[in-house]
Amino acid sequence: RRATHEVANFGGLNVPRVIVSLTRLPQLEYADLRAAGHLYSPFLDKFQMSDQGADYIYTGEQPVPFMLPNGLKEIVNYTAWVDAGRRPHHYPVLTADTYMEGLPRHPQLNFLMVGLDVLDAPLLRYLRHDPTVVLVLATTNAHAMPEMRRAFFELLNYQVTCPVIIARTYPDQPLEQTQLDAATDLGGLLIDGLGDGIVLGPELLAARSHEEWLDVLTSYNQLSFGILQAARTRMSKTEYISCPSCGRTLFDLQETTAMIRKRTDHLKGIKIGIMGCIVNGPGEMADADYGYVGVGKGKIALYRGQDVIKKAVPEALAVDELIELMREDGKWIEKELLDEPVGV
Q: Which of 103, 240, 275, 283 has CA 20 to 30 A from 64's CA?
């Protein structure tokens, strides 16, 4: 991972941060923060942060008119920050020109929008001595990852160690295409240790209803966390490793996977391998924490890592036995039951 100094909770030894852009929502209400993974319960009058709760929201020129829940911070445009009285709990975004003018800044954390074209020698030399700045690296190049990688090497060449947020925006297209594009543009950099956070912006999307915006932004937030998990830089959910199924599969793989997910999908950072047979299963789930492997008709072997712990467990009891194994290791937690659905 690229060596960076710590700015607030960015860089250093911190996990990469997730920023959700809410600039396309004209009037924010408590419940709208569910798009960023922070769920509000009117009955309890409190927020609950999910395992995929964003760290920051970006609201542009319209700061949130209410107090944010713990664990969530707000980024605004520089003009909005000044107009609101330079509040300490707001963090401004500056352009390169504004930044170089030496105007007043936040004493702890400032965001600077940059692209490869503005990373000239004077700016790079200035950045080396600023302990409060986090770069937001963006590009309009169709070949985004190579250009942003070049920008990272400019920072390395000038020994600039400030954290960098990777920012991408995509036009209206199927969600599956956005997932592929974002995984390529952002994931390719994160795997190489480049990047201290990500933000997927909705600025290029066409107008839509309030509820449709919430659905889009929720999917962007989930995609951001999914990319970080796939790059092994931030674990936020249970991960399942499953074989593709073949003639040797000794149980209904899809049904069993769905059943295990239903019981275990709240276990943050746990990896579970679900394999249809003993032939290739243990090798395919080599990095799993636990394994569920078919060894005979109606019989399951349970693994801890690469070690078989229980053999020939009846299939009807296997999921309960898997949970009991996690419980013995101190890794099982009960699902939290809420008095009322939140975020509605």
A: 103
